[in-house]
Design brief:
CATH topology of the largest domain in chain A: MetI-like fold
Order of helices and strands of chain B: HHHEEHHHHHHHHHHH
Structural class of chain A: mainly alpha
Oligomer: heterodimer
CATH architecture of the largest domain in chain A: Orthogonal Bundle
Number of strands of chain B: 2
Number of strands of chain A: 0
CATH class of the largest domain in chain A: Mainly Alpha
Helix content of chain A: over 70%
Strand order of the largest sheet of chain B: 1-2
Helix content of chain B: 55-70%
Shape of chain A: globular
Order of helices and strands of chain A: HHHHHHHHHHH
Shape of chain B: globular
Chain lengths: 277, 333
């Protein structure tokens, strides 16, 4: 009996190892490239022979990258904050209140989740040019909020349906005011859901490439994924590979941190929103 | 005091909706009777409705304003000759743009490439995703590590992953290109497409697996035990017990992944820029708009892609009926 369980454990261990390696190889590879010196960059070795931080130093010296990083962080944070606030309001209503038009809203959110984003690129390009929003932060924040809202609404309403709202009533029976009941009882219970949603929405905004490349034209609002694709090196003969890789690693770090610290939350957020939605 | 008292003063511009709702005074669920407010139920109900609309209005407005209006505007633009390089020649041309696009070989090549990528990646992802879901769900050791590792492809910026694959397959620089020594794989059509699909599959299999894992969690363990007591093999347990229970989750995952795959853009942009006829429909729509500055043709492609996605979604919903997402919302807890 003990024998079979060790064997089973070994087998699972092996399978797990395959999954982990498969998932990590491209990430490790781009990290490896970012630490290579220009001379060894093209040696095709997975592990750098000579390590250097020069690529990182170089990108942080250029305005192009630093500006893009500021844009990426600012735009993603603002869009996340707005989407989570609007999403929380709507999700609370969907989970807790009974009103006509609820199903319509859920349907609209579902439609937008399926919406081909490229279909919006042409009209938004023209509309934003006329409104003066083209190549500005709001010009990107608006479509991000729009496409993040279905995700936020589905995830949050799934969370809110699980919150034991009777506790609110119980707290009020015990003499708490409406505000106290909300602050002391409901908010702590709902906070993990809101937080998880914020992470998912942030990842979505952080990852976007299509809108960012279509609706921006200068460093004013270009985000890092777009700046990456424009890196060309100082001269025609300078290979931008090292710089691209270093920049790529920089914008991957927050994602890896999120995943490391909040794995459980992200999994539950993604699955609850998708299945119950 | 009660939650409903606050918005009662605020007025929602309901207009037509209000008259529609007055007709359907549905039976009030019993649990509402124990609300603290003493006012007649109907007033309580009306306050609840107002609060509901008030809370949903901002989200609904943003979503409709940023998608609804532009898509209609896109239809309008697609009926015009409108090239930003020659703005003076802007004129209404009816369906000419559609004729131009639909008789164009580039469009159909891109359409074929998109369909190929969609079908192959979704099929492979379904199989791999199911495997990964089983591993994440049932593994005896290191479940946290596997789940964390699997989330990295989901979370990572697509452009970053695409650059990683590009350098991996670039001769000289890359560890993979050196394994398959001859030639540069990203300069030939078949191998380029294969690499694009590989990058897509790597990136999105975890998402598929997570959705499937949620379905797996619904399979009752007792049922599996009972089946295995009755002598069902592992394969039989999988096909006869697990798959039927998971069907809704599988369909949701398939629908979302199919629509997502159809929009493929980032990977192609970075890996090949659409060289050697590897453009997807999103890619050529982007090229016509941003590189070609041809709003008329770009909008026409936007509308056509929108229609294609609508057809795919419609077929899914029709084929799978009640299993489609949204249709059972609210009933399931």
């Amino acid at each position: 009996m003990a024998d079979t369980t060790t064997r089973a454990k070994l087998q699972w261990g092996l399978l797990n190892a395959v999954v982990v390696v498969f998932a990590l190889i491209p990430v490790l590879w781009i990290m490896s490239l970012s630490f290579k010196t220009p001379a060894t960059l093209t040696d095709g070795k997975f592990i750098p022979r000579e390590w250097t931080l020069e690529n990182y130093r170089n990108i942080f010296d250029t305005d192009q990258f630093v500006r893009a990083l500021v844009n990426s962080i600012g735009i993603a944070l603002i869009a996340t904050a707005i989407a989570v606030v609007l999403g929380t309001m709507a999700a609370y209503a969907i989970a807790r209140l009974d009103f006509p038009g609820k199903r319509l809203l859920v349907g609209v959110a579902l439609l937008i989740a399926m919406f081909p984003q490229v279909s919006l690129v042409s009209p938004l390009f023209e509309i934003e040019r006329q409104l003066g929003l083209f190549d500005t932060w709001p010009g990107l924040i608006l479509p991000y909020i729009t496409f993040a809202l279905p995700l936020a609404i589905y995830t949050l309403s799934a969370f809110f349906k699980q919150v034991p709202w009777d506790l609110e009533k119980a707290a009020k029976m015990d003499g708490a005011t409406q505000g106290q009941a909300f602050r002391r009882v409901i908010a702590p219970l709902a906070a993990p859901g809101v937080f998880t949603t914020a992470i998912l929405v942030f990842i979505f905004c952080w990852n976007d490439f299509l809108f960012a490349i279509s609706l921006t034209s200068t460093e004013r609002s270009r985000t890092v994924p777009v700046a990456l694709s424009f890196f060309t090196g100082e001269s025609q003969f300078e290979d931008p590979t090292g710089a691209i890789c270093a920049a790529a690693v920089v914008i991957t770090v927050p994602i890896i941190l999120f995943v490391l610290f909040f794995q459980r939350r992200i999994v539950s957020g993604l699955t609850s929103g998708a299945v119950k939605g | 005091m009660s939650a409903n008292s606050t918005p009662a003063g605020a007025d929602v511009a309901a207009g037509g909706t209000d008259t529609r709702t007055r007709g359907q005074q549905a039976a009030v669920p019993a649990q509402r009777a124990n609300r603290r407010k003493r006012a007649p139920l109907s007033e309580n109900k009306r306050a609840e409705r107002k609060l509901g609309w008030l809370l949903c209005a901002p989200a609904a407005l943003v979503m409709v304003a940023v998608t609804g209006y532009p898509i209609l505007y896109s239809v309008w633009l697609s009926l015009q000759r409108f090239d930003l390089r020659f703005p003076a020649e802007r004129e209404f041309v009816g369906l000419d743009n559609y004729v131009t696009v639909l008789t164009n070989d580039f469009w159909w090549t891109a359409f074929g490439v998109t369909m190929l990528i969609t079908v192959v990646t979704v099929a492979v992802e379904l199989v791999l995703g199911m495997g990964l879901a089983l591993v994440m769900h049932r593994t005896l050791v290191g479940r946290g590590i596997v789940r964390t590792a699997a989330l990295i492809p989901y979370g990572i910026v697509t452009v970053v992953a695409a650059f990683s694959w590009r350098y991996a397959w670039t001769p000289g620089t890359g560890y993979l290109a050196n394994l398959f020594s001859d030639g540069a794989p990203l300069t030939e059509r078949a191998s380029s497409l294969a690499i694009i699909m590989l990058a897509e599959i790597w990136k999105t299999t975890p998402f598929m697996a997570l959705l499937l894992m949620a379905g797996l969690a619904l399979v009752p363990d007792d049922l599996l035990k009972a089946a295995s007591t009755d002598g069902a093999t592992a394969w039989q347990r999988f096909t006869k017990v697990m798959l039927p229970v998971m069907k809704p989750a599988i369909l949701v995952a398939l629908l979302f992944r199919t629509l997502d795959a159809f929009r493929v853009f980032d990977n192609i942009y970075v890996l090949t820029s659409g060289a050697n006829e590897t453009s997807s429909v999103s890619m050529i729509a982007y090229n016509n708009l941003i590189r070609g500055l041809n709003l008329g043709i770009g909008s026409t492609m936007s509308v056509l892609i929108f229609i294609a996605v609508a057809i795919i979604a419609f077929v899914f919903v029709k084929l799978f009926g009640t299993a489609a997402p949204g249709s059972d919302d609210g009933e399931r807890r």
